[in-house]
Amino acid sequence: MESAVQTQIVIIPADRIVDWESFHDVFDEALGFPGYYGRNMNAWIDCLTNADDAESGMVANPVARGDLLTLSLVDTAEFKRRCPEQFDALIDCTAFVNYRRREVGDGPLLALLIDGNFA
């Protein structure tokens, strides 16, 4: 019998994101990226691709191998309206992290928990 996948939920205060600088500030603060974090989406992808590798130091609180890191966005609908470029990049790059991991035989790692009404 397989064991159940556990998830670690990290709150992302998307209401504080107004541009690329604040996007990277918020994710860096929430996830504890290393001091050399490049503050671009390639660096974001690199950090989160390794969020289950404690030795890599890419996030302050890595998840166990096989578990999920769930990014819970606060005030998502307003974030999407205010920062459509950053919102789309978040969706695309989250999907790419999981794709990248699957390509090397690892399971998906990231999940998004999105609140709000998008109607």
TrEMBL record:
| Pfam families tied to this protein | Barstar (PF01337)
Annotated transmembrane regions = none
Which residues belong to any copy of the Barstar (barnase inhibitor) domain? 9-97
Family recorded in the similarity comment: Belongs to the barstar family.
Q: What is this protein called?
A: Barnase inhibitor
Q: Which organism is it from?
A: Sphingomonas hengshuiensis
